[in-house]
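Consider a concrete sample entry:
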Amino acid sequence: MGRSCRASTEGLEKAKGKFKLKGWTQDHLAGRADCTRQTVGKFFARQLVDQSKFQAICHELGLELGDVAELESEPEQLSRSDMDTAQQNPSESHQKASSTAKQSTIRKAIFILSGTIDTVDKAKLKAIEEHLRKISGDANLTFTDVEEGSIKITLEGSSEGLARLQELFESGELTEVLGIPVEDIQIRDGEDSDNNESKQFKNFSGIDLRGIDLSGVDLRDYNFSDADLRGANLSATDLRGADLKGADLRGTNINEKTEIDGKWLLVWETVNHRVEGRDLSNADLSGANLIDADLSGAILISANLTDVNLSGANLSGANLIDADLSGANLSDADLRASLSSANFSDANLSGADLRTNLSGANLSGANLSDANLSGANLSGANLSGANLSGANLSGANLESAIVMNAFFVDTRELTENMKRDLERRGAIFGDRPPVLNSK
């Protein structure tokens, strides 16, 4: 029969000290020890953990198993008195063993408080979470969702901890939390996640992870959208299925053992290794973070660049014919490139250098405020609903351009005749309504 371990009180203090010195997260430790985040949580909560996993955690912390552990049998193994009972009443002992085995599973509960979200700020919610951890005895109890109306909080924690909260509520001992009345607690059956990491533990969206060592960690399907990974060590890391939309990968360390989807590998190569005239025709770079990227001379014909962040990027001499840049951020980018028939609908082009051929380009709803369009060819371009406030249109060709509801306030270098012509075609100057052509 296998064995399990629980940390002794003294051993746990040693482990916590080592863990703090290393500066790791529990997710990182789990990856290094080849176990789940829940297993690490059990380790630090002094719950029973499979001996091989316990030993692996100790090894990563630089400790010997004997320095930390209290050796015990498997959770379902009965004590001597229980074994005596089992001989007399097998059915009762089976129920007791089953109950013991389930104590460390992760479950969810709905915790309902009186009031509304408007009356409780983030600091208050954090304080409530800490209070519930204390009274439940579950240091890993976590809020995973908070809904409007009555304050309806989804809790995730051990079956034991959630059951303790429910017992306190039903006995009348838990009637309020930090002055807020408790309306109900409902444990949700059938939602155990003992063998699966919670989605919460896989969410690093928007987190600053600069310089972090994630080498060799299993991060499959994790959410790193908009995370700052500059200088992070991702060598031999498994990132298959990970969401890296908007993630900053500049200076990130990736090697031949790193498992990463082709799209994000291409993004990493683009921001870290400049290649003159890089051919990215038809490439899918949607949602990528390409801030300040040097793409001068790049071939991006028909590329998917929707929602990409190219602010400050150098695209001089690039070929973007038929590229889709809808929703992209191109503020302050150098776009002296081939842009005819490109789609810039709803893109942010504020301050961009657009002294180029934009004939036939779709710029509907685009932000072109303060853009440099001097000498630009905008013939046939769709500028409907675009914001051209403060733009430089010196020498620009707006012949047959669609300007319905385009905003031209404070636009530079437009003659009065040009303004009247644009107004007749539906353009807006300042607060004046458009003068529509009656024909």
About this structure: DSSP finds eleven helices and eight strands in the chain.
